[in-house]
Structures are given as C-alpha cells and as structure tokens.
Amino acid sequence: MLATEFDDAQSQLLASRCGRDLLIGDIINVGTGWFSDKSISADTSFQELLIANLKLIKQK
C-alpha cells in the first residue's frame, strides 16, 4: 500500500515507521487511560494524525 503512494524507498520507510509509531503510541495511551477526554475518540485522532503525517511525508 505504501509503495503505491510513495515513489522512493526513503519516503516508504518514513511512512512505515510513522504508522507503527502512531499505532504503538495509541495502544499505550489508550491502555494507560491517557485518552480519557472523550471530545475526540482515539480512533478519530489516530486517523487524523496518520493522514496529516503521511501528507507531510508526501510533500517532502
């Protein structure tokens, strides 16, 4: 999937690491109760942050 969006190996690697970092971070944050504010769900914030970060990598 990343190979279809990112042409070069460095961008693919950055996008892959970004996704893993966000996923692991969300698992830890939800598990420890740090996402107790319900004004935005953990799922929504994960999706929005992932999209924003991938857009930044694509612009690079």
Question: What does this protein look like?
Answer:
The chain has 60 residues and is an all-alpha fold. The chain has a domain at 1-14 and 40-60. The chain contains 3 helices and no strands. It has helices at 2-5, 9-32, 42-59. It starts with a helix and ends with a helix.
Distance between the termini: 18 Å
The stretches of 5 or more residues where confidence is low (pLDDT under 50) are none
Return the structural class. Answer: mainly alpha
Tally of individual helices: 3
In N-to-C order, the SSE pattern is HHH
Strand content: under 5%
Large-scale geometry? elongated
- The total beta strand count reads 0
Mean pLDDT: 93
Major β-sheet profile = none
Radius of gyration, in angstroms, nearest whole number: 13 Å
Fraction of residues in H or I helices? over 70%
Features:
single chain; 77% helix; elongated; 0% strand; 60 residues
Outline the fold blueprint:
Blueprint: H1 2-5, H2 9-32, H3 42-59
Helix pairs in contact: 2-3
